[in-house]
Write a structure and sequence with these properties.
Length: about 240
């Protein structure tokens, strides 16, 4: 499915009936051949935006998966880059990647809701496409964890896409997907948390501010604007006070 190297429909079904962690362990060898991997143009746009305000010393890719965000950090960090993820399978694939000389890269298996790092260990944290795996009630704890591992003045950065309008097919596709996942989780254990419409900018901004961040938005001009003039993609920049 998706490409000759990608997972079959059966493999995706098995993943969806597993826990989030075990599901990604199963998907890991073929993950980079699915649409779930963050697209290269988005990674490049974030890297370019960070380069305008960097360089940074130590960076963390939160929920790093197979390491796409680590590659972004390696472009803008001088000393060290760390990827953290709770899936051993995804980390195993990430470690196989060939990366050019640059900052020291390390991989850590851990839960983003209980980060295994010292206070103030990083001056930059990024994340790509992971927030649908957290329920709204988990965001305060998640953002508090990120705040704790950042140095004063450190940045928590992630891209966010403008939500599709109700008149678009994408809106109804995502609504249908979330509905199917809610039914699945009501009937099957363990749950598989993956909700595309649960991560709303207004809620996210409020929770980041409660966690102690100053929150700004930066347009990523590479993706243009919608017909109403609003940006298609923005970058949330949360600065630890």
């Amino acid at each position: 499915m998706f490409s000759p190297e990608g997972p079959s429909l059966r493999e995706l079904a098995v993943q969806a009936l597993s826990s989030v962690e075990h599901g990604y362990d199963l998907l890991a060898p073929k993950f980079d051949h699915t649409p779930f991997r963050t697209p290269g143009p988005l990674l490049d746009a974030v890297a370019s935006a960070l380069a305008r305000t960097g360089p940074f010393d130590a960076g963390l890719d939160l929920c790093c998966g197979t390491g796409a965000g680590v590659d972004v950090l390696a472009r803008v960090c001088r000393q060290s880059v760390t990827g953290v993820d709770f899936s051993a399978g995804m980390l195993a694939v990430a470690q196989q990647g060939v990366r050019p000389a640059g900052p020291t890269v390390s991989w850590v298996q851990g839960d983003a809701r209980a980060l295994p790092f010292a206070s103030g260990a990083f001056d930059l944290v990024v994340s790509f496409g992971a927030f649908g795996h957290f329920l709204p009630g988990e965001l305060p704890g998640l953002f508090a964890q990120v705040h704790s591992v950042l140095r004063p003045g450190g940045r928590f950065v992630f891209p966010i896409l403008a939500p599709p309008r109700p008149s678009s097919p994408a809106f109804w596709m995502l609504l249908g997907f979330d509905a199917v996942m809610r039914v699945r989780n009501a009937l099957w254990r363990p749950p598989f948390v993956m909700y595309y419409r649960a991560f709303r900018l207004g809620d996210v901004r409020r929770e980041l501010e409660w966690a102690g961040f100053r929150v700004g938005l930066e347009e990523l001009p590479e993706f243009g604007r919608r017909s109403d003039g609003s940006p298609r993609v923005r970058m949330v920049v949360a600065v630890r006070s």
